[in-house]
Amino acid sequence: MRYNLVIFDNDGVLVDSEPIANRVLAAYLTELGHPTTLEESIRDYMGSAMHRIHELILERYGRRLPDDFDDTFHGRVFDAFREELQPVPGAAEVLEKLRADGVPYCLASSGSHDRIRVALRKTGLYELFGEERIFSSQDVGRGKPAPDLFLHAAQTMGTPPERCAVIEDSPLGVQAALAAGMEVHGYTAMTPAAKLGQAHARFADMAELPALLA
């Protein structure tokens, strides 16, 4: 293994949450008078921390989202997750192989701590992490594409950035990993490969990932 730490994004990489979350987000923004399709939500907000949604809406419409927007959105998303969410095929097997090989790994997500845990518990992946290996943009204040989250995860795990591999499925996440000085592998099951063109490597099936990391 040529990396000392593998950092996984959560949404879209470990759990198949992006279609669900963006469907809920598009519907809620439309309800609030900001017409948004599922495709537009994926294009504009996939991989974003919540603060970026607020900033883009204010920039585009000159109006702030309601004070309770985050709580209402997360409540709706969590309800949908509990009904529908599934793990990304092959994700558990990759994590189990890394653990068996003694390769450290962790999770670094733009999502809130609550969102991460709801998703991991519903999909049965929580036991493969535990509290000490879960990092959220809430920990650093600035989400992707800023490098802060990945740098925080690497520092906490005691690994230099240049010895880290990041597994991402969004352009914002790829930008953040590169800005952190890390190698990044782009997962293209949902995102067109061309949009992850800056990644060091791209793959469409989790079964391909162990060979890329070796």
UniProtKB/TrEMBL annotation:
Its cofactor is Mg(2+). Signal peptide: none annotated. One of its GO terms (molecular function) is hydrolase activity. The keyword Cell membrane does not apply. Keywords: Hydrolase, Magnesium, Metal-binding. InterPro entries: Beta-PGM-like, HAD-like_sf, HAD-SF_hydro_IA, HAD_sf, PGP-like_dom2. It comes from the Bacteria. The keyword Hydrolase applies. Belongs to the HAD-like hydrolase superfamily. CbbY/CbbZ/Gph/YieH family. This is HAD family hydrolase. It comes from Streptomyces palmae.
